[in-house]
User: Fold this.
Amino acid sequence: MRLRDAAVVVFFSLACAFAAHAAPVKLEGTTWQLTKLPGHEPADLAALPRRATLRLAQGRVTGFTGCNVLTGTYTTHGASVTLKLANTLMACPEPQSGIERTFLDLLNGPLSHAVTDDRFTLTTASGAVLEFEPEPTLTLEGRTWNVREYNNGRQAVVSLLPDTRLTLAFEKGTVSGEAGCNTFRAPFKVQGNRITIGPAATTRKACADAVMTQEHEFLTALQSVSRFAIEGGILDMHRADDERALSAKPTGAK
Assistant:
């Protein structure tokens, strides 16, 4: 055997060995992205502003229905899983509301589950099948997050003022970005899904009163963050009292 042929054989053998020992995707602890829902086209699922998801971990269910946030508990028995769910009640246009109704209806009652070849399926007693795939992994660092909404400190999560931009970029212990009028920098520390963000230093540009008020409220919300999650392509940051502090999408996302 020639040296080059031997090298190809060794490379192929190593690749096969790596594939054989790659960690399988597990039912629990994986964020699953909905790819097939009876009565709806896959293209409609892919076109949602935020993909519908489901995550099961340590007896708790979290996810997104296509319109609202999903929470609850679950129990498993062999290949059967039973979900007890609650969701927020925001109204959405079609096809989001229709997808949500079907999704929630089919999650009722005991479901058969299976994970095969990185695909997760749930099958109802009537034989309807929902299919999922692992959500692409996003990390906190390495991208710019565009804030979509923030807590104004008066028990309300609000959208941004027109023609303003709030951004976050986490890198090597510093979060920086645009605060609507000024740019800012603040220290942060992460441990698991826990995060602490220190006071922000800003530039000193003056803008309209409403914009300056938004900037102050946003930076206050940012410093109140105690934990975060990235699901459905969305960065969700919450305070210690579980109130949402802010949510953001990565640059380039729809």
